[in-house]
Every structure is written in C-alpha cells, then in structure tokens.
C-alpha cells in the first residue's frame, strides 16, 4: 500500500497553524499585562514613553525624539540630514517651524514634540 505524499505536509501545516494560535493567545495576554503596567506607571507619574522627555532638557528631547533619524551626534542618518551648523542655514524661527510642522516632501514629520519642547530644542540646535 502506497502512502499519500500530502499527509506529511498537511501535518506540518496543522502544527504550524496550531502554534500560531497558541502564540497569539500568549501574546495577547502579555499585551494586556504590559498595558496595565504602563497605565499604572502613568498614574504614578513614572511613565517613560515619548511624552516623558523633560521639557527643559533639549539633549534628552533630542535623544528620545530625533537622534534615530539625525544621529546621536547630529551627523545625520539614513532618514535625516546632519544638524550640525543648522543655524547657518536656518533662523531660530525656521528651525522651530520645521520641528513643529515638519518639512513637506521629506521624511521629517511635524508634531513629534510639544510646542514648548520645540522652542527649547530649536534654541539648543541653533547653538550646535
């Protein structure tokens, strides 16, 4: 009697689907736990999300919100240009405008930081 050649593939497919269902359930449970922890931290004022950057510390704002595109040393990156000497190209008001509103036609989005943070960050960048 000849074995059906599709049976091993069907068994593998069923096991794969079963594994995905189990892992999805585990992931959903973990997602709920993480969300509960985040909610508790926010209630206690210990959040470490994007809004946690100190409004008065431009280096912290830059490292949390800008360095991934512009480089930790302002030298530029894959998605953003170098910001060293940006004050030679843009005025303080223009720098703040770009931070607040982004730059059309580029990867620079607006609104990543609050207007207060944008003002502090623009002043700091103009001195770099």
Automatic annotation (TrEMBL):
Alphabetical UniProt keywords: Electron transport, Heme, Iron, Membrane, Metal-binding, Transmembrane, Transmembrane helix, Transport
Gene Ontology terms: cellular component: membrane
Species annotation: Melghiribacillus thermohalophilus
Gene3D superfamilies for this protein: Cytochrome c-like domain
Binding site residues for heme c: 66, 69-70, 108
Segments passing through the bilayer: 6-28
All copies of domain Cytochrome c, residue ranges: 53-128
Modifications made to the protein after synthesis: Binds 1 heme c group covalently per subunit.
Organism domain of life: Bacteria
Name this protein carries in UniProt: Cytochrome c550
Entry GO MF terms: electron transfer activity; heme binding; iron ion binding
PROSITE patterns: CYTC
Amino acid composition bias (Acidic residues), ranges on this chain: 33-42
Region (Disordered): 33-57
